[in-house]
Design a protein that fits this description.
Blueprint (H helix, E strand, L loop, with lengths): L7 H23 L7 E6 L4 E8 L2 E9 L2 E2 L16 E9 L13 E4 L4 H5 L8 E3 L11 E3 L3 E2 L2 H7 L9 E5 L8 H19 L3 H6 L6 E2 L2 E2 H14 L2 E12 L5 E12 L5 E16 L2 E10 L1
Parallel strand pairs: 1-10, 4-8, 7-9
Antiparallel strand pairs: 1-2, 2-3, 5-6, 5-10, 6-7, 11-12, 13-14, 14-15, 15-16
Length: 301
């Protein structure tokens, strides 16, 4: 056997060293400190991917990449339509060549949570929507060349990754990013959240239930049954206190998402402790007749 090393022991040592270097490089891509306030935005209007900080005044872009999108223009509806979905998502998991990622996806892929809860309610289908790199950089010269994924260069997906917290960092895929950057929307969403919390805490059941869309469901209850359930709790508890902290807003042309840490406390008659819960909440809301309505209320585990 021909070998560049005179000793098999040296060969094994060198091989293990080289393997470690390759592994270390792959892991270095995913082990950098992350930022907790970064939002990833894909702007279909200009074929760009933005890294933005979620400031009190809105999203502040600090990185811009070119992006190639699905071969067919429009919002994804069914499996195989070759469209890139539109909505507010997060990242489920990541994949590297070392764990079986296909070469065409480049050095890394981030799996998007399509279909999300509203997509499923709308009976949308499809799977494996990714933001990924490519082994063919010339694909970035085309605006529409994927089967629904978002393609960037390998060095860009590697630069993007450290800012991503799986199942937490939001991804907004929009038809027109600039149209979603109206500061007045944030004030309106904050006002809605405050009024919803106040109605809940003051046991104003009519105003509370009016905050929900007619098609809202919760744990197999429709809106009417949910209102009766909440009214029953109002009678059981003497006081209810609901507070929201670490509030974040995410805006889109189809719906918006309000995410916060919720603290719920109640007391029974006589001042005895009732129910206590701390949870991360997400409200999927939509403006209807100039008023926000809750489409989906999620507790995030």
């Amino acid at each position: 056997m021909n070998t560049a090393f005179p000793s098999s022991r040296v060969s094994v040592t060198v091989f293990l060293f080289l393997a470690f270097c390759v592994y270390a490089r792959a892991e270095a891509v995913v082990s950098k400190p992350h930022s907790e306030d970064v939002v990833i935005v894909v702007d279909k209007k200009v074929n760009k991917l933005y890294l933005a900080k979620n400031k009190a005044t809105g999203l502040e872009v600090f990185k811009t990449f070119d992006a190639t999108l699905g071969q067919v223009i429009g919002d994804k509806n069914i499996e195989g339509d070759r469209k890139t979905p539109e909505g507010i998502y997060q990242f489920q998991f990541r994949s590297l060549p070392s764990n079986g990622l296909k070469p065409k996806f480049g050095s890394m892929a981030l799996y998007v949570s399509y279909p999300n809860v509203l997509d499923r309610k709308g009976r949308k289908t499809g799977f494996d929507i990714l933001i990924h790199g490519t082994n063919d950089p010339s694909r970035l010269e085309k605006k529409y060349d994927s089967l629904g994924c978002v393609i960037v260069l390998n060095e860009q997906i590697e630069e993007l990754w450290p800012y991503v917290r799986l199942k937490e960092t939001k991804l907004i895929i929009t038809r027109d990013f600039e149209a979603q950057r109206n500061p007045s929307r944030r004030a309106k969403a904050q006002k809605f959240l405050d009024e919803w919390l106040t109605a809940w805490s003051s046991k104003d059941i009519d105003k509370y239930v009016d905050s929900y869309a007619y098609e809202f469901t919760y744990d197999k209850m429709d809106r009417l049954a949910y209102g009766k359930y909440k009214g029953h709790l109002n009678k059981i508890y003497e006081t209810i206190s609901v507070k929201a902290e670490n509030i974040e807003f995410f805006f889109h042309e189809k719906y918006d998402v309000i995410r916060f840490d919720q603290t719920y406390e109640s007391t029974l008659p006589g001042g005895k402790k009732g129910y206590f819960l701390e949870a991360k909440k997400e409200l999927y809301v939509q403006e209807r007749n100039d008023q926000y309505k809750i489409l989906v209320e999620l507790s995030i585990k």
